[in-house]
Write a structure and sequence with these properties.
Shape: elongated
Strand order of the largest sheet: 5-6-7-8
Strand content: 25-35%
Number of domains: 2
Order of helices and strands: HEEEEEEEEHH
Number of helices: 3
Largest sheet: 4 strands, antiparallel
Structural class: alpha+beta
Distance between the termini: 51 Å
């Protein structure tokens, strides 16, 4: 019986080691994300870290860590905790006190003015909130989600 108990412990230990190795390998694969853009003269490599978020009123997750999004540091705002803009799709994501919202069809000029605003919250409330409704404008689909 004692020999059987030792065998069970060895098998259990082996399973734990295998699970830990699998977890480690998976973490390495998830952290090593690169996008390569091949150009005639050179190959440029861009490395990024995925950051999938749930946007209110949107079914799928969006990876705001993708380089297609320009990030705006809004740390001086108590209301807005980050903003991201995809210029190719005129698509903005904004974090308002922990909840992510999206705006579709938002012109580049509005984004530029928002970035330059003295108060992000005031500008958001005056020019963005209530406009650029994703029920009425094109919602980009990010197939790599």
């Amino acid at each position: 019986m004692k020999k059987f108990s030792l065998t069970i412990k060895k098998i259990f230990s082996l399973i734990i080691v295998i699970l830990l190795l699998f977890s480690y390998i998976t973490d390495i694969k998830c952290q090593d994300n690169t996008i390569s853009e091949v150009q005639p003269e050179q190959q440029e490599e861009i490395t990024f870290k995925h950051n999938y978020i749930k946007v209110k009123y949107r079914e799928d997750l969006v990876d705001i860590g993708n380089p297609r999004f320009e990030y705006l540091d809004t740390s001086r705002s108590s209301f807005i905790r980050g903003a991201w803009y995809d210029e190719d799709n005129n698509y903005m994501i904004i974090n308002l006190k922990g909840t992510y919202y999206h705006y579709c069809g938002l012109p580049l000029k509005i984004w530029i003015d928002f970035k330059r605003a003295d108060s992000f919250g005031t500008y958001y409330n005056k020019y963005i909130k209530g406009n650029y409704d994703c029920r009425c404008n094109y919602v980009p689909w990010y197939k790599d989600n």
